[in-house]
Write a structure and sequence with these properties.
alpha/beta, TIM Barrel, eight-stranded parallel beta barrel, six-stranded antiparallel sheet, about 30% helix, about 20% strand
């Protein structure tokens, strides 16, 4: 009598297993169908080439070679770095490690003597040719150090094949002497004829209002507003062989420019600088309107900081609506003109920073890492991993595979034999899994962040299920 009972139990167990397997297959099929219902968004349409910052004669080899995924920039300062003239030495001590991590360029603060001398962050420039070697405005060295230390830093960076970008403030000046101004009928602080370097002497004729007009696009903080229409200003800023731009590039060996407060003057100014001086350039046009950013970049013939991306990331990651990442951004309009960032010396609003870095370091554009995020606030090992992934895997055009409030999946489609990647960002409090379509058929893939231990193989139709940790990200590519 026992044997039939055993048979019945076995039938029940086998039936249960078959039902469970069948149910799992149905669930998997439903999960795959859900992802298939999402209409893939092909964001960019170009030949897939990476972001390039061009070549530089100051490189020891005469040129720079970008990684397959392009370059990564480090903003090598923050607001109110320690005074005392040691900042250039501090950065010099880090460039080897940064180069080893895959940083391709550093952006330095304004390097010349400003009104507040040894206490200034450089955004109130007085003498563009005083790098800490003239005793004026109360000090010889700048807040950051001496000219010799700056030259040493630039040389050290170039030895690591790292480009160096100068922060250039050409909207306004400060620290001039008072003079009678016939255009205003008052005294103005516009007499810069006595700057210690003797270079770029200027007076009321070179500032608004003057014979060229009452004003330009914008002034800043009540400082004397440089008139770029004045021949003396044009000559000393970008035309003369010994002027600011060409001296910085050819003598000091800067490789490019970050233009401060470009809302304050027409984009033709940066265009003229780039035409006459050369080098990589990016403008700080603080505006979330992507149409405005694109207009400025095109007319300036320059890259621009992608504030549209910055504010969308803030709303998406901190507002828990990752579908906002589908919205328009400068890198989507023109990835070769967009410099992306998570934080800078002026603004620090995004709370979920690692998610934001996982976004900009896997997507198109020229990503920037903020000094304090890298050196103090975040996990350097995780950032180094993202930099490596950017440099080696983040290639080709971009397609968004899925997005909702707390999940976002995008694919870089690869370029020139490089397979690209799939990035999965999860802003929820639990592990998530999702079926997605790759560009790889019957191929084993892995998560190059190490956050997932899965090694799935894509199906013949290129679909595969991947996973992502809570409040985290995973980045998948061919296991090779």
């Amino acid at each position: 009598m026992k044997k039939p009972i055993v048979k019945l139990c076995m039938v029940t167990i086998i039936s249960g297993l078959l039902f469970s397997c069948s149910q799992n297959e149905i669930n998997e099929s439903d999960a795959k169908a859900e992802s298939q219902n999402f209409k893939v968004i092909d964001v960019t349409h170009h030949d897939g080439k990476p972001f390039s910052t061009g070549t530089s004669n100051s490189s020891p080899t005469g040129k720079y070679v970008d990684n397959p995924g392009g370059g990564v920039m480090m903003q090598a300062f923050y607001w109110d770095v320690p005074a005392g003239g040691n900042w250039w030495n501090t950065i010099s001590s880090k460039v080897t490690a940064w180069g080893n991590a895959g940083i391709g360029s550093i952006w330095l603060p304004p390097a010349s003597k400003a009104q507040n001398g040894a206490f200034s962050m450089g955004y109130d420039p007085t003498d563009y040719f005083d790098f800490g070697d003239y005793n004026q405005n109360g000090s010889t060295e700048t807040r950051f150090g001496s000219k010799a230390e700056l030259v040493s830093l630039i040389t050290a960076a170039h030895n690591e094949n790292i480009k160096v970008y100068a922060d250039i403030v050409i909207n306004h000046n400060s620290g001039g002497q008072s003079e009678a101004n016939p255009f205003t009928g008052t005294n103005t602080w516009t007499n810069f004829t006595g700057v210690a370097s003797g270079k770029f002497p200027r007076n009321y004729n070179d500032f608004y209002k003057n014979s060229y007009g009452n004003n330009d696009e914008g002034s800043f903080g009540g400082f004397p507003d440089l008139c770029h229409a004045a021949p003396n200003v044009q000559n000393w800023l970008w035309l003369r062989a010994d002027g600011v731009g060409k001296y910085y590039k050819n003598t000091m060996k800067f490789d490019g420019w970050r233009f401060d407060y470009v809302k304050g003057f027409g984009p033709w100014v940066v265009n003229a600088w780039n035409t006459n001086v050369g080098g990589f350039s990016v403008g700080e046009y603080w505006d979330s309107n992507v149409n405005t950013l694109e207009w400025w970049a095109n007319n300036a013939n320059s890259s621009v900081f992608d504030f549209a991306c910055y504010y969308k990331m803030n709303d998406a990651f901190d507002g828990n609506n990752l579908a906002l990442l589908n919205d328009d951004m400068m890198w989507k309009r023109n990835p070769y003109r967009a410099v992306t960032f998570v934080t800078n010396h002026d603004t620090d609003e995004i709370w979920n920073k690692l998610l934001a870095y996982s976004y900009i370091l896997t997507h198109e554009g020229y990503p920037t890492i903020f000094y304090r995020d890298y050196e103090e606030w975040l996990d350097k090992n995780k950032l180094n991993n993202l930099i490596w992934i950017h440099n080696n895997k983040a290639t080709g055009t971009t397609s968004i595979l899925y997005s909702d409030n707390d999940e976002y999946v995008a694919r870089r489609n690869g370029y020139n034999g490089n397979p690209g990647l799939v990035v999965y960002i999860n802003n929820s409090d639990v592990w998530q899994e999702r079926w997605i379509q790759t560009n790889w058929a019957s191929t084993q893939i892995k998560d190059f962040t190490g956050n997932s231990s899965w090694y799935p193989t894509t199906q013949s139709d290129k679909w595969v299920k991947i996973q992502c940790p809570p409040k985290g990200y995973s980045i998948w590519s061919i296991n090779q």
